[in-house]
């Protein structure tokens, strides 16, 4: 088995275990624990940490892992654990025309049309009360089809194949059963799954939930020779996986750090997001002296890894004609004059040199001048820490769809260059 095929198989396993940001953080933590990383708790005093390998979670959906030595700059990689999705409302059950439905909110900039006519499952976090009145939380993943959003038949909408706006309140409401089912039945469904996931628990009732719909169909290798990987949440779990794998093999003599933030898809303004204090708090605990910390950060480097737009063979005109990132041709450096990406000439040159050392090809992306572009945690982190930053990512198609496409070899390319970054 070739290295990139083995990498794709491991990535598929990671994607399958990570239907939500909570599960993605847990999956990344599991990879680190396998390599002897020690979990730290934010509510505990750390004191002066001995040289070693550590990680910490916030909100169960964001993770920072690092190899620690008492001196020297930091080599840092950032990515995000969340993906666009449909999130259940607090009181989700609705009855319409004999059907039981789930009220949802659109989380992030989801491409909505591909959500129709797919079997959907549920996963996320629930808060529950035990028989003694105490509160606990647990992650749930039903791993089986529970809901569907049926399209309106073309006979009833002859304009269906033309560009059509969808109403998030009325058009995106999935079916989960027939109206004979009750709210109590839904609560019992959650309790049954909680008991399955946590057999030692004795829950008296579910108090609150953060549950998301997702496509339970597994990611697959597609193409004549398995050239493509297609599946949900490639943006940005490919980068989370590559960052975790790089940290697992990091040189223990370096200060290497990964930060996997939640809530990037909704603006990053949260305690666990890139505009929150998570990374700054950890760095302040590691280097409490402000002058030493600032000196270390001035010599540090941050790679913001988030998927890039590959040129679509059917829609090449949507790209700048001199910047056409292709599938299978390596990671993409992302540029933007208005600082939607944090790349500078110096940081781009450093990343190109890193790719050359890793023997990995590299490409460039800049939006057409008459079109906007997305953003990443890169500019937020660069602004907060004043650290030299480059924005990169593997090229992919159908970004923010329920299933996205990338070249399987590019997943290996990204893993390889990030692993090289964490070596002397």
Produce a short descriptive summary:
The chain is α/β, with parallel strands linked by helices.
Features:
single chain; alpha/beta; 27% helix; nine-stranded mixed β-sheet; Aminopeptidase i, Domain 2; Aminopeptidase; 2 domains; 20 strands; six-stranded antiparallel β-sheet; globular
Descriptive notes:
This protein is an alpha/beta fold and about 425 residues long. The chain has 2 domains: about 5-85 and about 230-420, 3-Layer(aba) Sandwich (Aminopeptidase); about 85-215, Aminopeptidase i, Domain 2 (Roll), CATH 2.30.250. Helix content is about 25%, strand content about 30%. The chain is built from 9 helices and 20 strands. The longest helix is centred in the middle third of the chain and has 15 residues, at about 185-195. The chain is globular and about 65 Å long.
Strand and helix map with partners:
Layout: H1 3-16, H2 21-34, E1 38-40, E2 52-58, E3 62-68, E4 74-80, E5 85-96, E6 99-107, E7 121-130, E8 135-141, E9 175-178, H3 183-197, E10 203-214, E11 220-222, E12 228-231, H4 234-248, E13 255-261, H5 278-286, H6 290-298, E14 301-305, E15 308-309, E16 332-334, H7 345-358, E17 363-365, H8 377-385, E18 388-393, E19 395-397, E20 404-407, H9 408-421
Parallel strand pairs: 1-2, 4-13, 4-14, 14-18, 15-19, 16-17
Antiparallel strand pairs: 2-3, 3-13, 5-6, 5-10, 6-9, 7-8, 7-10, 11-12, 12-20, 16-18, 19-20
Helix pairs in contact: 1-9, 2-4, 4-9, 7-9
């Amino acid at each position: 088995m070739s290295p990139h095929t083995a990498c794709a198989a491991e990535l598929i396993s990671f994607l399958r275990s990570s239907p939500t940001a909570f599960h993605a953080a847990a999956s990344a933590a599991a990879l680190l624990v396998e390599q002897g990383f020690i979990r730290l708790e934010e509510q505990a005093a750390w004191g002066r940490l001995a040289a070693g390998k550590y990680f910490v979670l916030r909100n169960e959906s964001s993770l920072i892992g690092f190899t620690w030595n008492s001196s020297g700059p930091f080599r840092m990689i950032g990515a995000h654990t969340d993906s666009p999705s449909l999130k259940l409302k607090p009181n989700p059950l609705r009855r319409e025309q004999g059907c039981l439905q789930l009220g949802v909110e659109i989380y992030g900039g989801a491409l909505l049309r591909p959500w129709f006519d797919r079997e959907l499952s549920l996963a996320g976090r629930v808060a529950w009360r035990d028989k003694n009145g105490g509160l606990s939380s647990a992650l749930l993943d039903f791993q089986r089809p529970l809901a569907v959003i049926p399209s309106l038949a073309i006979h009833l909408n002859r304009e269906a194949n033309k560009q059509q706006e969808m109403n998030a309140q009325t058009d995106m409401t999935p079916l989960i059963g027939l109206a004979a089912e009750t709210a109590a039945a839904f609560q019992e469904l959650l309790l049954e799954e909680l008991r399955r996931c946590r057999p030692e628990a004795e829950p008296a009732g579910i108090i609150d939930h953060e549950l998301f719909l997702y496509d339970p169909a597994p990611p697959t290798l597609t193409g004549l020779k398995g050239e493509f990987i297609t599946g949900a949440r490639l943006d940005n779990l490919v980068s989370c996986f590559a960052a975790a794998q790089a940290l697992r093999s990091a040189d223990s003599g370096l200060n290497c750090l990964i930060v996997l933030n939640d809530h990037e898809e909704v603006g990053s303004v949260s305690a666990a997001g890139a505009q929150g204090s998570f990374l700054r708090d950890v760095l302040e605990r590691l280097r409490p002296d402000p002058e030493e910390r600032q000196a270390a950060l001035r010599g540090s480097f941050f790679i913001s890894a988030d998927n890039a737009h590959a040129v679509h063979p059917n829609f090449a005109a949507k790209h700048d004609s001199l910047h056409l990132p292709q599938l299978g041709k390596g990671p993409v450096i992302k540029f933007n004059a208005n600082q939607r990406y944090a790349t500078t000439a110096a940081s781009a040159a450093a990343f190109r040199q890193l790719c050359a050392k890793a023997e990995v090809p590299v490409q460039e992306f800049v939006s057409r001048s008459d079109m906007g572009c997305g953003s990443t945690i890169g500019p937020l982190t660069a602004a907060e820490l004043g650290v030299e930053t480059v924005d990169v990512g593997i090229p992919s198609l159908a970004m923010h769809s329920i299933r996205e496409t990338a070249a399987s070899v590019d997943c290996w390319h990204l893993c390889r260059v990030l692993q090289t970054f964490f070596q002397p």
